[in-house]
Amino acid sequence: MTSCDSPPRAARTGAAAALLSALLVGGTVSATPAGAAVSAVGDICYSALPAQAHDTLDLIEQGGPYPFEQDGTVFQNREGLLPGQPTGYYHEYTVITPGSETRGARRIVTGEEHREDYYTADHYASFDLVDHGC
């Protein structure tokens, strides 16, 4: 897999559910590699996402094609807000912002676990883990 390839969604398994469960009950997650803190990550219901985020998630499920060349590239997590993982674990995708002449600030960042999708509306200043069950 090259740095531009996105990992197959079907290969992702339950760590996101464990993360979400810990967040919902107010706990912490200590089983994340490198002892990463997840306190900087909130949560958001799938139904509360903007329609364009739904479109992006649909494209990810389908494996593309994506509207921007950068979509599907490795997200480095330089901000350190997402749980610490090895390089290549996270990938980023543009959420189109109507009226914007650029890619805008909205993104979906995926982890390798099944449905481990994070939404940012402020270009990586904050993240919300998407709860696909609501």
In short:
With 134 residues, this protein is of the alpha+beta class. The chain contains two helices and six strands; from the N terminus they run αβαβββββ.
Note down, in words, how this protein is organized.
The structure is a single chain. The N terminus is likely disordered. The longest helix is centred in the middle third of the chain and has 12 residues. This protein has 134 residues and is an alpha+beta fold. The relative contact order is 0.25. The protein is globular. A 6-stranded mixed beta sheet has the order 1-6-5-4-3-2, with helices on both faces. The N and C termini lie far apart (32 Å). It has 2 helices and 6 strands, in the order αβαβββββ.
Distance between the termini: 32 Å
Order of helices and strands: HEHEEEEE
Uncertain regions spanning at least 5 consecutive residues: 1-39
Summarize the main sheet.
Answer: 6 strands, mixed
The percentage helix is: 10-25%
Assign an overall shape: globular
Number of helices: 2
Strand order of the largest sheet: 1-6-5-4-3-2
Oligomeric state as shown: single chain
Structural class: alpha+beta
Radius of gyration: 14 Å
Instruction: Count the beta strands.
Output: 6
**SS strand fraction:** 15-25%
Q: What would the average pLDDT be, to the nearest integer?
A: 79
Which terms would index this structure?
134 residues, alpha+beta, six-stranded mixed beta sheet, 6 strands, 16% helix
